[in-house]
Description:
Elements: E1 3-7, E2 10-12, E3 18-25, E4 34-39, E5 46-51, E6 57-59, E7 67-72, E8 77-82, E9 91-97, E10 100-101, E11 105-109
Parallel strand pairs: 2-11
Antiparallel strand pairs: 1-3, 3-8, 4-5, 4-9, 5-6, 7-8, 9-10, 9-11
Amino acid sequence: xxxxxxxxxxxxxxxxxxxxxxxxxxxxxxxxxxxxxxxxxxxxxxxxxxxxxxxxxxxxxxxxxxxxxxxxxxxxxxxxxxxxxxxxxxxxxxxxxxxxxxxxxxxxxxx
Length: 111
């Protein structure tokens, strides 16, 4: 059974950086498209970034140039490096892979 677990969230000041990790277990050697989403209070969940099985990446306009998604295939971990964070990046960040969602990790950008 596939499990997806996010980690790395926290509190950071504007302009700071955070590194989120999505650990995927139970999938054997298969690699699927993996996406990061976020949901801020009172808002719908939105796609932030994704990485395909062949490594093609995509980003939402709001994070393009600031966030980087990457995969460590040996460890089956997908990382979201977030730089130049803004207060509007505050949200719960979710990882999804193999049709499974993680429990989310809180990111708060505030002074």
